[in-house]
Backbone:
């Protein structure tokens, strides 16, 4: 049917010009934010604006040129949106650096973030150059699943693992610290997609029907269930609640999309409710998070208490509709304002207007990912894009919901905005994969069949013989 | 910096942010509704403009078909040049090959080029389009001499 679609005349254009146009505006967003921070905080445009802007522009243009060369039909919106978010995040982190500096502690989070962004863009380019066809990843279904579990186990090793803020999710190698979970998350999506694409028919059709849900056979669901339980168990053991929620959601969504059985969502929802209630009663850490969420002001001056989320809400309330302006708020009052709570800094200094814009940008990324999944011609690409979209959505929802007080707070990074190298790098790779899938999906069909003329001829000879 | 300047900078920045969001949305919009290219233009222009394979229009090649010929049925001998692709086949007055055949629908089938290959596509006809004994459900490749049966009529590509 996809073929009939192309013959009906629906052809995707390349739109690289549109991408370049959007990238220029994205750079204005990023560099403009940096300039506005300088003007707001120090009263003048920062001296290094040319160098900073040049660096940012060079990174973004390099990414664009590579996309132009190796993925000419890729989606034109993904890269600019991500570049704008990253630029805005850098500026806000820089603004917080200045605030910390004013209070006597010098930090260079923004510089480190820029270095990580460079690493991210290099990996983005590398992914696009090395991975010419995303279907290659399907060969590494089990490998990536095992590697993901291995990565998740790394922080438990006594030598290199570290416990930071109660979660044992870090590894330290020399001067570098890294959260292997962020990479594991991408690998798990590949593993889920690769496995489910082969077994989805068996999962959907074979098996017994219990109440209103078709339960699949154990041998079909077993491997993936095991992989998932292990990763979930590790995360719970490391008390990294946000990531466990992420993986649980990812598992449900990919299973639902692969089998087209809404029953999975019902079962998953019930399991989630049961697990959440159990955790609330039994795990003190979780119970306290929920109490803080329900009655934030009762715990304001307690320890551990609700100082952080309440300060964030004060900040966002003070920011109001259009914010205080860069330099006129005090976002540094919120602990970890530059990582988990970066959205409250944006809410305080740029107001609801900017927060809505940021959420919309995330929405656009997810929309483009799902669109790539819809028009993708191979089932593995569909599932991979859906999985990546799901993990992105869940992460944004969990962290923004937590910061704004919609749901209990769990620590996760805001993709592309937050300070944090591992998350930034992993997200750039996610975008590279999405661009690769969308390039394959939007490429016109004859381009693929026309690669080798001899094959096409052979096929048509067979048609003649049949007549 | 005066209060007013800072206020203006803030408003200007928010405006830039929203301009970006809106232009991203407008690119998506044009991507959704602007991608439909007319069949004729699609056959010629984008193919020729493709850098890796500067393949000319199909008829230039030696041995490639130049016209469609009706070889059996009430309109035997009628033909249509492939230059005018896509070629509409049916009983309607707008069809490039008009067939006086009771088993043919008004807009029955279409022959179109994709790359240097020719396809026949059924346009939702009542009695179907057949290649050999197989009723086609999706665009199917045509080569020289492949017999396409529509009602009581048989067409094929000829040099």
Residues:
């Amino acid at each position: 049917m996809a073929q009939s679609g192309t013959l009906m005349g629906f052809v995707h254009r390349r739109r690289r010009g549109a991408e370049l146009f959007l990238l220029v505006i994205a750079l204005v967003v990023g560099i403009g934010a940096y300039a506005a921070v300088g003007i707001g905080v120090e009263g003048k445009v920062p001296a290094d604006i040319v160098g900073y802007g040049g660096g940012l522009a060079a990174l973004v243009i390099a990414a664009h040129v590579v996309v132009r060369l190796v993925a000419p039909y890729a989606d034109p919106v993904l890269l600019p949106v991500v570049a704008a978010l990253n630029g805005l995040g850098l500026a806000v982190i820089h603004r917080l650096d200045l605030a910390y500096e004013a209070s006597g502690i010098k930090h260079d989070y923004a510089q480190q973030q820029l270095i990580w962004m460079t690493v991210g863009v290099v990996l983005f380019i590398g992914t696009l150059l090395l991975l010419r066809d995303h279907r290659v990843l399907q060969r590494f279904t089990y490998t990536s699943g095992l590697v993901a579990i291995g990565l998740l186990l790394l922080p438990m090793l006594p030598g290199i693992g570290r416990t930071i803020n109660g979660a044992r999710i870090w590894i330290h190698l020399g001067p570098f610290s890294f959260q292997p979970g962020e990479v594991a998350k991408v690998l798990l999506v590949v593993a889920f997609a690769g496995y489910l694409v082969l077994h989805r028919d068996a999962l959907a059709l074979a098996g017994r029907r219990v109440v209103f849900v078709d339960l699949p056979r154990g041998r079909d669901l077993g491997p993936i269930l095991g992989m998932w339980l292990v990763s979930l168990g590790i995360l719970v053991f490391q008390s990294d609640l946000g990531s466990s929620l992420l993986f649980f959601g990812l598992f449900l969504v990919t299973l639902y999309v692969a089998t087209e059985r809404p029953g999975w969502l019902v079962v998953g929802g019930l399991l989630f409710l049961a697990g959440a209630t159990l955790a609330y009663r039994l795990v003190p850490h979780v119970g306290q998070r929920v109490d803080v969420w329900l009655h934030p002001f009762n715990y304001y001056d307690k320890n551990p208490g609700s100082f952080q989320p309440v300060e964030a809400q004060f900040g966002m309330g003070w920011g109001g509709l259009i914010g205080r302006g860069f330099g006129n708020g005090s976002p540094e009052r919120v602990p970890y304002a530059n990582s988990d709570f970066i959205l409250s800094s944006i809410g305080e200094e740029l107001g609801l207007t900017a927060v809505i814009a940021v959420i919309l940008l995330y929405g656009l990324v997810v929309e483009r990912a799902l669109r790539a999944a819809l028009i993708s011609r191979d089932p593995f690409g569909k599932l991979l894009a859906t999985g990546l979209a799901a993990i992105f959505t869940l992460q944004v929802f969990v962290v923004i919901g937590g910061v704004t007080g919609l749901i209990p707070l769990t620590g996760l990074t805001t993709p592309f905005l937050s300070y944090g190298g591992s998350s930034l790098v992993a997200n750039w790779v996610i975008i590279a994969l999405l661009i690769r899938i969308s390039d394959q999906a939007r490429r016109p069909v004859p381009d693929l069949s026309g690669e080798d003329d001899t094959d096409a001829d052979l096929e048509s000879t067979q048609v003649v013989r049949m007549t | 910096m005066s209060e007013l300047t800072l206020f203006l900078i803030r408003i200007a920045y928010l405006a830039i942010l929203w301009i970006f969001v809106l232009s991203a949305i407008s690119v998506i919009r044009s991507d959704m509704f602007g991608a439909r290219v007319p069949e004729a233009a699609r056959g010629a222009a984008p193919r020729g403009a493709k850098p890796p394979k500067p393949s000319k229009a199909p008829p230039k090649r030696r041995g490639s078909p130049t016209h469609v010929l009706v070889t059996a049925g009430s309109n035997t001998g009628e033909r249509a040049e492939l230059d005018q692709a896509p070629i509409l086949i049916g009983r309607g007055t707008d069809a490039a090959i008009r067939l006086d055949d009771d088993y043919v629908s008004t807009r029955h089938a279409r022959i179109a080029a994709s790359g240097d290959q020719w396809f026949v596509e059924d346009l939702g006809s009542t009695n179907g389009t057949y290649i050999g004994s197989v009723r086609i459900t999706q665009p199917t490749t045509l080569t020289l001499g492949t017999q396409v049966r529509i009602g009581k009529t048989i067409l094929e590509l000829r040099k």
Summary: The CA atoms of residues 110 and 270 of chain A lie 42 Å apart.
